[in-house]
Amino acid sequence: MLHFPTSGRPALVLAPMEGVTDAPMRAVQSERGAFSYCVSEFVRVTGTVLPAKVFLKSIPELRSQCATPNGTLVQVQLLGGDAGLLADSALVAVGLGAPAIDLNFGCPAPTVNRHDGGATLLKYPHRIAEIVARVRSAVPKHIPVSVKMRLGWDDTSPVLENASRAAAAGASWITIHGRTRNAGYQPPIFWGPIGEVRKLLWPLPIVANGDIWSLEDFKRCRDLTGCEHYMLGRGALADPNLAPAVAAELGLHHGLPSHGPFGAAPLDWLHLFERFLAHTPDRPDRSLLVARRVKQWSSLAERFGEVRWFAEIKRLPDFECIASTLLALNPTKQ
Ligand SMILES: Cc1cc2nc3c(=O)[nH]c(=O)nc-3n(C[C@H](O)[C@H](O)[C@H](O)COP(=O)(O)O)c2cc1C
Question: Which of 59, 44, 173 is nearest to 107 (CA)?
Fold first, then answer.
């Protein structure tokens, strides 16, 4: 069964990544049944309560029980600094079928931070508390309201107070990316403080996140945090075998089909990209759009994974060109 984090029942979560884990990517990533649920890219709340159409555009799964085509639930993530607008917007999302709300206190983007959103809130624990409390009381009790945060703005110490405040205000679980805002995405990752939060707030579920690129990383992260729940972002894209391997290690059997190990040959990637294409709505520029996304994905898999053919496709204009190049690269065809 697919599920949200609860104590005693591990969950593996697909990270929200704005501009990367959109609906077609969520569909492909959830296809092998490794993820317990996905989190949507952030939906920004600024100046006004968001209308339904904004949610439906960003999270088309809302039209189908807010689940990916294989039935994996999608949690709706909101980003903003105005507790009242966030609460009212959360209510709109829930009215459309959002099964859970997540609040983003981690985004490091300067534009977002300048407009009182994302990681800026880490400097104001009382505001985190107020936002969580307002959203929590706005939506029905059976809808979880969770928080995703970084360790702090420029040092790691605020995480204990921020997480405690979020917990006291009613957060259903807390996902922690083991970096400060100022660290951006630079190594090193600090998993240790996530473990301290877990101990302090037990039995509140804490989801550990950041720089899990391999099964070995996952095991080290588990040793350091002692967490039951994990979130994978870039690592899941760079290595399509990672999420199934971590799910198996967590003892997760979601009852969904697993397609066996993924071979890393160009043809195997092509099959994956074809799944992405199949999940992308038909429109005149679909081939160009998918080509752009496939290049984004391959570049990540080259940087952090085993892909060695990114240079061969990075200047190709459309999906057809990429497909025929990957076919030609396939060793069994040569
Ligand atoms: C391109 C990109 C976009 C992201 N967008 C979001 C977002 O919309 N919401 C959010 O909470 N985190 C966002 N993140 C952070 C990820 O969810 C995650 O916390 C981070 O990438 C660390 O996990 P990883 O090392 O497994 O990728 C984003 C990260 C990247 C790289």
Answer: 44
Query: Atom 28 of ligand 1 has which residue's CA nearest to it?
Result: 17
Q: Regarding predicted confidence, which is higher, 119 or 260?
A: 119
Pocket test for ligand 1, best of 12, 14, 17, 35 (most atoms within 8 A of CB): 17
Atom of ligand 1 nearest to the CA of 20: 1
**What is the distance between the alpha carbons of residues 241 and 280, in angstroms, rounded to a whole number?**
22
7-11 contacts at long range (C-beta below 8 A, 24 or more positions apart) = 7/202, 7/203, 7/204, 7/205, 7/228, 8/228, 9/228, 10/228, 10/229, 10/230, 10/250, 10/251, 10/252, 11/36, 11/37, 11/205, 11/207, 11/228, 11/229, 11/230, 11/252
- The atom number, within ligand 1, closest to the CA of 235 reads 26
Ligand 1 closest atom vs CA 102: 11
pTM of the model: 0.97
Q: Residue 33 contacts by C-beta under 8 Å, 6 or more apart in sequence?
A: 70, 244, 247, 254, 255, 256, 257, 258
Catalytic residues: 107
pLDDT in tens, 155-183: 999 999 999 999 999 999 999 999 999 99
Q: 277 burial class (0-12, 13-18, 19+ CB within 10 angstroms)? A: buried
- What pLDDT does 334 receive? 44
CB 313 within 8 A of CB 253: no
